[in-house]
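WARN no homologs supplied; continuing
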Amino acid sequence: MKSILSQIKRENQYLICVLSVSIVASLCLFTRDYLDYKIVGYLLLVVVSLLAIFLDILPVLLSAILSALIMNFFFLKPYYTFHISNAEDSLLLFLFFLIALINGVLTHKIRKAEKILQIKEVRVNTMKLYNALLDSLSHELRTPISTIMGSIDTIQSKTLTISEENKLKLYSEIEKASLRLNHQVENLLNMSRLESGVIQPKIDWCDLKELVYNVLDSLKDDLQFHKIAVIADENLPLFKLDYGLTEQIIYNLVFNASQYTPKGAKIEIKIEYNANIDFEYNPDKLMPCVISISDDGNGFPEAEIDKVFDKFYRLQNSKTGGTGLGLSIVKGFVEAQNGKITLENKEEGGSIFKIYFPALVMNTAPISNE
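OK structure emitted
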């Protein structure tokens, strides 16, 4: 409410002040014979105080002046004149106006101080994120660039004799480093898209099994020391999702598992069609799909599970580098498609990510059997 009122035009703020004071005064006027005028003064003072919390200083000053005039004209005897018959009422009116004025000014100054403090906190947090990003990029971008440059220098060297086999290995290293560099740049661009709010999902029919195998093929070098299992029904239907966003979601989760689990660990990708699921992200009870990505690694520290989707967050005891953007991008891309993602540790060890999409479904089983 505070943020909405702060955006109201100045002319409308004046109108709000006049209406607020007039409405309260009108209600009090009907009970003037039964209500002590001091209580009316307290009520008007409360109105001015509330207006001072939300509106600018000049409209609040207007409400303070208007309240004092209304108090004098309608509630201090003799009625309907600005003449005050005794010194006590004069002092009361003066104190009422002074208190309303001071209250409005002080409240405005407090709000101004709060805004300055918020701006300082935002700047501090921005600098922390900026430093974290620089720290991450200094390693994550420099390493593949150094690999590419070193390999090219070696290949082009006129003083070294390199066998064709070694050249092929160097070309392979250049390719891997290029893919890693591309992955980091993609994450930065995707985070920029999420921050600017320009992501508009392009919904179309997706074959999730095909999508998963495409991701696994692009990560074959990172997964060469892992056991991979894909579990999906033979007659899995098509789901209406954004292919590109969903591919990036699976890619980041599988890549994350490959980097944070030991060699020999098992990574399992399971795609389910659940027609009976009903949860808060599925208000129309559409038939959703559920994608689970689990591993039998070390899992996540329980104290940090709630933070892993935060931007730039990296596990405290992690030896692996990273910009801390992968999982925050995953969450953003899931929510962009009105989905939900959860993370928990498995009792037998390792972790499991579960993604729920309230997607439309096209069952292809009858078509394939004809």
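DSSP finds eleven helices and eight strands in the chain.
OK
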